Amino acid sequence: MQTTQYLTEIIRELQHASEQIQDEQAELLVNDIIGANKIFVAGAGRSGFMAKSFAMRMMHMGIQAFVVGETVTPSLEKDDLLIIGSGSGETKTLVSMAEKAASIGAKIAVVTIHPESTIGKLADVIVALPGAPKDQTTSSYQTIQPMGSLFEQTLLLFFDALIVRFMEKKELDTQTMYGKHANLE
């Protein structure tokens, strides 16, 4: 197959994945973002990159959003929201973060393939994304892509869709957001 044919198939997989996400779960997450004092995002590996991009867009909207583990990240408090992106929902460092957030009394949201996971059991809001786990030998979900690529791509697009929904609810536009874009580049 040609590269463009692979690209077409990846886009088809993403379209199929997007059709399986429940709007009710997404709306709960948007409302929790609106109601939170500060937002913290976390993920490991490529999922972490997707979470960082989400935090960046929230900052552009004027939301206090932080990436867990960065040197300028403040402490999590009771009225805050921790959003974790984790395909497995079992990554040990992320499980520890969720447990700590729960002990503080902060809200926890997880975006995952496995709602029944350890992090899923700790979460107040669960958004289930379809996809294959990194080890696809035990998965019935089929993708041409390696490891967790489909989940990670769907995670990025889902986070971008949340941003658009938030913009709609808060009557924000791109021009307003651009005013908060980095200017020391």
Automatic annotation (TrEMBL):
Keywords: Isomerase. GO terms for molecular function: carbohydrate derivative binding; isomerase activity. Residues 29-172 form the SIS domain. GO terms for biological process: carbohydrate derivative metabolic process. InterPro entries: PHI/rmpB (IPR017552), SIS_dom (IPR001347), SIS_dom_sf (IPR046348). It holds the Pfam family SIS. PROSITE patterns: SIS. It comes from the Bacteria. Belongs to the SIS family. PHI subfamily. NCBIfam families: RuMP_HxlB. This is 6-phospho-3-hexuloisomerase. It comes from Halalkalibacter akibai (strain ATCC 43226 / DSM 21942 / CIP 109018 / JCM 9157 / 1139) (Bacillus akibai).
